TrEMBL record:
Origin: domain of life: Bacteria
Gene3D superfamilies: Cytochrome c-like domain
All residue ranges annotated as the Cytochrome c domain in the record: 299-466
Keywords assigned: Heme, Iron, Metal-binding, Signal
This protein's record includes keyword Cytoplasm: no
UniProt name for this protein: Di-heme oxidoredictase family protein
Signal peptide: 1-20
Native source species: Rhizobium mayense
Amino acid sequence: MKRMALMCLCLAATGLPAIAAQPWEEKTAALGQAGAEVSGHQTVEQLKNLIKIGEALFTARFTVEDGAGRPGATQAIVPTKRKHPVMNEFSRTAGVDANACSSCHNMPFPGGAGDFTTNVFVSEGFESADFDTTDPQFSNERGTNSLFGDGLVELLAREMTVDLQRQRGEAITLAAKTGQPQRVALETKGVKFGWLTAQPNGLVDMRELDGVDMDLVIRPFSQKGVMTSLRQFTVNALNQHHGMEPVERFGGRWTGTRDFDGDGHADEISDGDVSALVAWQATLPAPVQKVPDNAQWRDMAAAGEKLFDGMGCTACHRTSLPLDSLSFSDPGPNDVAGTLNVSQVKDPAVYDLSQLDWTKKLKRNDKGQVLVPLFGDLKRHTITDSGVDQLGNELLAQRFVDRNIFMTAELWGVASTPPYGHRNDITTLDGVIRAHGGDGRAARDTYVGASDEDRARIIAFLKTLVIEQAGVKQ
C-alpha cells in the first residue's frame, strides 16, 4: 500500500495521469478521465465521450478522498485563506453545502433547477470572510437556475458582445475622423442597451448604458447576469459548494501552491475536468414548447401565446434570438484572469453543437440563423418599484449591480422548474407575474387587469414551455 501511494504521488508530481480509482474506493472515478486539458476540434465521438465524463462529474458525490472540503480557504471567488479554523465543514451559509452539482441542479432532471430546499447563499460584500448567519444583511439567498440550453445562451452572449463592442469601436473611429461627438444607440439582435457617446479625443461617455457593463460584455449567467461563461460559473461553483478547487484558479499559477485549501489533496480539479463539465452543460438540450394532447389546453395555450405578446411580456421575454454559429469554443473569448482563457491555451477546445440531434430541430430564419427560443433578452432590468417590490428581496449589491436589478429570466422550461422568484419563494406562475415591478410593471398591470379567462390562457401557454426527458439523451 505504501508503494502504491508513493507511485501515485510521483505520477501527480510529474504531471502524468493518476491511476484510476478502483470500483470499491470512495473516490470519483471520472476525475482525471478527460486528461490534463482538452484542446482542438472535437469529433462526434470525442464530444460524446467528453459529455459522458462531464455528466459523471456533474452527478458525482465528491468525497474527502477526492479533495472535497476547503478547511483552509473561504468560498471567495478570489482565492482567500480562512481567518479562523473551520468548525463544521458543511454549512448552509458560506458552504461547503453540497456533495454533487446535481444535489441542487436536479429538477426535473440533472442539470435542471432546484426547489427552495436547495437555495444557496451568495455572500456578497462578505465573500472573503467567515460568517454563520443567513441574515440578508450578510448574504443574498438565491434559487438554483436550470442549465438546459445554456450552451446556446453563452453563444448568443458572445455574438452580442462582439456586436456591441464593434459599435463602440465604429463610434470612436467616426468621432476621431469628423471631430464631432458621436452618440450611438447600442442594439444587437433586436435588444437595446442604451447609448454611448464617443468624443473626438477617444474618451467614451457610458452614462447612458442600459442593462450591460461598461466593457459591453454580455454576462448571461447567474440571476444578476454577472457570470461570463459556463466555465467561470463551474470554477466558482466547484470551490464554493464542494471545496473542489480547480487548478486554473487555485493552483500554482495563481496561488503558488498546489493545495491552496490545505486539505492534503493537490490539484483537485484539472483543466480537463472543468472542460468535461463545460461540455456536458453546453450540450444540454434546449427546452421545448410542447403541444398539449388536451384539445382545450391546446386552444387556450395558442390564445395565451398571443396574449403574452399583446400584453407586452415579450418586450423582455423575447420569444427567440437569432444565433449565427453553433461552434462552441472553450475557453471562450471573454473569459479573463482566474478562469482559463484563450491567452493561456494554444488550441482551445471546439464543440460543434450542430452535430447534436436536438439542435437540428431548432427553427431557422430566412438568413439561416438559428432561432434560440429562450424567451429572454440577456439584459439586466430593474424589476421593482415603490408599489411592487417582492422581487427586490436582497440587501447587498452583487458585482456593482444594484440590488433591484436582475437579468431577465429565460422562460423556456419554466413549466418544469417551479417554484419561482430569485429565492424560490413564489409557488405559482400567476404569483411571479404579479410580483413584477419596474421595467415589468406595465405588462404586469395589464395582466392583473385582464379577465380571469385571459390570465388562465397565459398560464396555459407558459405551462407548455417544458424540459423534456427524451431530450436529455444525446
